[in-house]
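2024-03-11 09:14:02 INFO worker-7 job=invfold-0412 stage=load source=structure_tokens
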């Protein structure tokens, strides 16, 4: 095995240990010492990575990338309910990614919000394409264009996610926060697209 391959394997071992810690304890509950507790020398970790923030971002990047690829491969773009069921299935199959995903979406670590915004671009594009597909099948009210409807959907989605970072959820355990988000998500999206008032 050459040096390049050994280096690649070392990096993968560190990332796997990081995912185990972030996926179990979250960003705030994870320390470099805990990651190194998986049989990794601290010097080796710092030789390959700058620290905890970089490792969290790498885990988040893999999470968003793998989730988006999974949704596309399973044709999650066909309908909103299918996309939500597939997302739930992905997290059942990859439970460590669930904590990383929801922490990145709902309560991003301080100073990493802009980096996470960049990392999730492909996932956001997937959602945008899904909303566009749904909107194209709706009869829109007079004066409402597809572009304004899409902007509205994205605004409501962002507001909904931000709500889980509000004082209303301060001190909540991340698992409870994830369950509250997911239990309300489909209803919120249904109301957003189809309204709550009967004309």
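2024-03-11 09:14:09 INFO worker-7 stage=emit residues=199
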């Amino acid at each position: 095995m050459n040096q390049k391959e050994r280096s690649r394997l070392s990096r993968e071992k560190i990332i796997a240990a990081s995912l185990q810690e972030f996926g179990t304890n979250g960003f705030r509950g994870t320390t470099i010492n805990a990651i190194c507790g998986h049989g990794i020398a601290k010097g080796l970790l710092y030789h390959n990575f700058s620290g905890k923030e970089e490792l969290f971002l790498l885990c988040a990047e893999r999470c968003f990338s793998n989730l988006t690829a999974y949704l596309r491969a399973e044709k999650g773009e066909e309908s909103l309910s299918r996309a939500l069921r597939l997302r739930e299935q992905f997290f059942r199959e990859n439970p460590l990614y669930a904590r990383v995903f929801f922490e990145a979406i709902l309560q991003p670590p301080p100073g990493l919000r802009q980096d996470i915004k960049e990392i999730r671009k492909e996932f956001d594009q997937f959602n945008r394409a899904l909303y566009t597909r749904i909107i194209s099948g709706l009869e829109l009210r007079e004066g409402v264009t597809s572009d304004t409807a899409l902007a509205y959907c994205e605004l409501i989605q962002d507001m909904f996610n931000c709500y889980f970072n509000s004082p209303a959820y301060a001190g909540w355990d991340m698992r409870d926060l994830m369950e509250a988000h997911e239990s309300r998500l489909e209803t919120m999206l249904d109301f957003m697209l189809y309204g709550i008032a009967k004309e």
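2024-03-11 09:14:09 INFO worker-7 stage=report msg="DSSP finds ten helices and no strands in the chain."
2024-03-11 09:14:10 INFO worker-7 job finished
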